[in-house]
Amino acid sequence: MIKQLCTANYAGGWTFSICGNANRNARGCGAGIYPITPQTEVVETMVDLYNKGLIKKGRIFHVESEHSALAACIGMSMEGARAFTATSSNGALYMAENIVCSALLRLPIVMQIVNRTLGPEWNIWAEQGESLLFRDWGWIQIYCEDNQEFVDHILMAFYISENHKVLLPSMLCVDAFILSHTLMPVLLPTQEEADQYLPSLDLPHRLKVENPCTVGGLSAPRITASHRYQMEADFANVFPVYREAQDHFEKIFHRRPTDPVSGYCVEDAEVIVVASATVASTVRKAVDKFRAQGKKVGLLKFKMLRPFPTELFLSVVKNADKIAVIDRNFALGAPQKVGGIFCQDIVAALGSVASAKLVQSYILGIGGLDVTGDQIDFVINDIFSRSQPTQSLWGGL
């Protein structure tokens, strides 16, 4: 690997290009691109590398909108090419029709979402609303804590999405500016390593000249229902394929990516704080501080939200009495005690166990507000003092 100081946006553009070029002995690769703050550096990097000849068999399409960017990816993917793109915020909304279409057509497209607050009013800072709008439409969703995790999971996303047991697109989410524009030391994959890690894409239902057909025609209700049922069944295959991707990654890169859900100091924890993306880093430091004070608190980091890793989640929280869920998102009009979207899924996953655990929702970082150590201290002190949950508590206002 190449050690380099770079932003998540640059790292994404490099790794997408390297992974795409790894398919040069098959149907090649390509991207549909359209800029939007704070994603633009991703597509600029792709174009720069393409112009320098890094991609040997493929094409970058400069289009007039985000909708067309993903439409180009759909066309390339249906032809059996490895397709990828990136967007953010209202750009994802403009893509909405094709985001749903990509999943229903079972195309293994990989897309970077730079999580940015939806507008108007216009706001360019971090929030998770746009990606979470699509959490129930068939995309694997990964929320990355740092630039290295993001790079590693681009490789893994292609490996998982293109597996014939899965064949679903992947969405890799990074916090706007906190990762997208922050320089970090990152190990970037070389072309040789990407070639070793990724098999050539063999899309079983790709379009073929010798067997012409139409795609996306009118479907009878029973056929549509059968498609959705099969997608749900194949979502369950993501977890064993993820483990296979971890094993393969460790063999080539000599380090192992963490599980879809991972715990820190959770074995004897009375309280577990649940966080995702960059907030998990802040929580981890707070856990160390409170542990030094003798308080039994731990961190559960959600990396994968879809498919929801229920068994892994339950295994991490099984010994805890109280769970504090930090969401950098919200669902307007939802039951007040579970206003955060991760929190809603967590309460559902707990099922019959929910009544034996106190689950409190905390909504932090909305509109790009900083999630500070003081706010995490408040969350931990508050959950320790609670005997029952209340409505979602908002921080930073």
Brief sketch in words of this structure:
This protein is α/β, with parallel strands linked by helices and 397 residues long.
Fold and architecture overview:
This protein has 14 helices and 15 strands. With 397 residues, the chain is α/β, with parallel strands linked by helices. The protein has 2 domains: 2-253, Rossmann fold (3-Layer(aba) Sandwich); 261-394, Rossmann fold. Strands 3-2-4-5-7-6-12 form a 7-stranded mixed β-sheet. A 6-stranded mixed β-sheet has the order 9-11-10-13-14-15, with helices on both faces. A two-stranded antiparallel sheet has the order 1-8. Helix 13 (341-350) links the parallel strand 13 and strand 14. Helix 1 (8-21) runs parallel beside helix 7 and helix 7 (147-161) packs across helix 10. The longest helix is centred in the middle third of the chain and has 16 residues, at 238-253.
Average pLDDT number: 96
Number of domains: 2
Oligomer: single chain
* Poorly predicted tracts of residues: none
Structural class: alpha/beta
CATH architecture of the largest domain: 3-Layer(aba) Sandwich
Distance between the termini: 43 Å
- Total helical segments: 14
- Helical percentage: 25-40%
Evaluate the radius of gyration.
21 Å
CATH H-level superfamily of the largest domain = Thiamin diphosphate (ThDP)-binding fold, Pyr/PP domains
Q: What shape does the CA trace take?
A: globular
Question: Taking strands numbered 1, 2, ... along the chain, how are they ordered across the largest sheet?
Answer: 3-2-4-5-7-6-12
Main beta sheet, described? 7 strands, mixed
Beta percentage is: 15-25%
Task: State the order of secondary-structure elements, H for helix, E for strand.
Answer: EHEHEHEHHEHEHEEHHHEEHEEHEHEHE
- CATH topology name of the largest domain, in short, is Rossmann fold
Total beta strand runs: 15
